[in-house]
Amino acid sequence: MEVLLSLLIAVIFVGAIYLILARNLVRILSGIVMLSNAVNLLIFVCGRIAGYAPPIIKEGQERLSADIVSANPLPQALILTAIVISFALFCFILTLTFRSYEEMGTDEADNIREAEPEENHYIPFKW
Amino acid sequence: MRQISYDIIQWFIVVPVTLPLFFSALCLMLSSKYRMNTMLCYVALVIQIIFSAALFQHVLSHGIISMTMGEWLPPFGITFNVDLFSALLSFVTNCVALITFSYASEEITAKKREFGFQSLFLLLVAGANGGFLTGDIFNLYVWFELVLIASFGLLTYGGNKKQFDGGIKYSVLNLLATTFFLITVIFLYSATGTLNMADLSRLAQEGFDFGSIGYILIFSMGMKAALFPLFFWLPASYHVSYNAVSALFGGVLTKIGAYTLYRMYTSVLVHDANQRRVLLLLGIVTIISSSVMLLAERQLKRQLGFLVIIGIGMLMLALGLGSVTALAAGVFYFVHSMLVVSVLYLLMGLFANGELFIDRNCGYYKRQPLLSSLVLICFFIVAGLPPFSGFWPKIMLIQESLKSAHLFALASIIITSFLVLLGLARSYALVFWQEGESQIEEDKTSVFSIRLICVMVLFSILIVIGVQPEYLGEISFNIANALMQPTDYVKSVFDDVY
Lengths: 127, 498
Prior knowledge:
heterodimer; A: 127 residues; mainly alpha; 3 helices; B: 498 residues; two-stranded antiparallel sheet; 2 strands
């Protein structure tokens, strides 16, 4: 199970990095979504997939009974946090990209040179 | 289950985080009333400074304090852990935040006011303080993301084309960096089963081998803090926003990444000498390459971006050298760099709204001689000339690299200082001394403007640090000694429990 999941994560990572290296902003954004999902899966695998029972302590007991191998609850909490955060950030970047497409009429990263205009000036070395 | 009882002072730890979060929410609720929001933000930032000063004073006299949330005993609960280092950085951050906010309240004139500036500002302050104060590495990741989303909003606040461009580069690359930081966190958890930094530090002292996890940390934090091959987003994005926002970003944001590296490499990833060498090398290459790029840049405000990077490079060089004196120099440089970068961005805003190009000669010196002299002194401070605050950490680093025979480090510090001085002197001569044909609209800054007062306050703090470096130097040495001995850090968290 872990090996299979790891291979899957590797495949998603490869795809994500391929997309992020593109020039087109929409492709970069798709790459970022894939990357954050790959990381979520990674968290899941890194928390060890040991058992399947829910880690809930029954009423009146102090701890889980010894014969139950429970799932690790912590990675699930971490994944939940990570999903929410990456979703919020992705929404922002998506909006930002759309607005900049509206303003500048392009989504090719090479053509967006507002902040760093191409310069042919020679900087004077004397005054 | 054991109960922990906390002193009243321990509750102070959470104030620098919860207070701005609360006021940020309040500002959102009252979002239609701009002036009211500004007042609320002032109140929050002033209380913030008082509390973080109290925290700093307490840590200085009583040692490290820690608090674990929700009575989940450490290492399970989220711990906030304040040693002198975090308290100092949090205090300086809050001071810079108050000053830049006052500056922004005048810089963003009534015409340019839009919804939400104060909320975002307070969110960023909360995130930065959280990052400095937390003792839980996943929690640190969450603060990074909070800072990130607030900074996206602030960077594009105003919404012109230039800001969209800078915003895209900034947001995509920083989001990637935090994703990689999350991977680091997860690998640490996978290897050790704990996310608490003090617990990780305890494992490290017991000789746990973290292997090559540190390299992913260096990659992600190198991207966030702007180290050599990964810093190109910074000069591409920091200059697009309002000068007050740029000042806050330059002063605080990159320092959180550097702080993380300092914390991790002094308490957790201590055993791997190779990784330290990598940090040293990255520091050297960063300072040299960015000082060369500073020479090639023609917009003054973008040159400041390279000065931010040089500051980070110096910090990494100090961390890479790794002795007590070098770390003390690093801590000193943290404070110096936070203040000087902010004051430079704020000062540039007083001339033609920061749009200064070195091939458009404006002859400011003739029209505003006092203000222009102030710029010259600030350039001296950032270049590290003797009576000013940049000089002391530099001389400590030079001594230390001589002693440990790191001649490349020594040479790079000297070359960088020379190149920075050369570049800044040229910019000053061309922009401020030389009078040219190009006409600029008269932008007389009155003596009593809030913006000038903000600049003067930061400037006088820097002068005091420069002339009287003993106090800050002593604190830096205390911090460096504490960083070299992480046992106290561990003990403060687990004392209540074991």
